[in-house]
From TrEMBL:
This is ATP-binding region ATPase domain protein. Residues 2-87 form the Histidine kinase/HSP90-like ATPase domain. PANTHER family: ANTI-SIGMA-F FACTOR RSBW, ANTI-SIGMA-F FACTOR RSBW-RELATED. The keyword Plastid does not apply. SUPFAM superfamilies: ATPase domain of HSP90 chaperone/DNA topoisomerase II/histidine kinase. It comes from the Bacteria. Keywords: ATP-binding, Kinase, Nucleotide-binding, Serine/threonine-protein kinase, Transferase. Transmembrane segments: none annotated. InterPro entries: Anti-sigma-factor_SerPK, HATPase_C_sf, HATPase_dom. Pfam families: HATPase_c_2 (PF13581). One of its GO terms (molecular function) is ATP binding.
Length: 103
């Protein structure tokens, strides 16, 4: 993002959204997961588009050990929504892409 000259506050938000979307894919979906970042707009008004694609939802499975406390999970979607100008999900045969645009 530094090479794209993305302002540091925008880059920080984008990295947090990347972390949330990737974590969601690793925990809740089938592999593989892939990440695509793109820069949109000009110098004055740039945006970062983040796309995480996985192979679709995994079957529910017990991870062993103690269950997670409610305060330790479930905030990812709210974080993505709060930091994104736009976000969404595209489902297709064989996978799901979750995307967000940070401005």
């Amino acid at each position: 993002m530094q090479q794209w000259r993305i302002p540091s506050d925008l880059a920080d938000d984008a990295l947090l959204v990347v972390s949330e979307l990737i974590t969601n894919a690793v925990i809740h979906a089938l592999p593989p997961a892939s990440l695509c970042l793109s820069r949109q707009g000009g110098r004055a008004a740039c945006a970062v588009r983040i796309e995480v694609t996985d192979a679709g939802p995994a079957l529910l499975r017990h991870h062993g050990g103690s269950p997670r406390q409610p305060e330790e999970s479930g905030r990812g979607s709210a974080i993505v929504a709060a930091l994104s100008a736009r976000s969404g999900t595209t489902t297709y045969q064989g996978g799901t892409t979750r995307w967000a645009e940070i401005q």
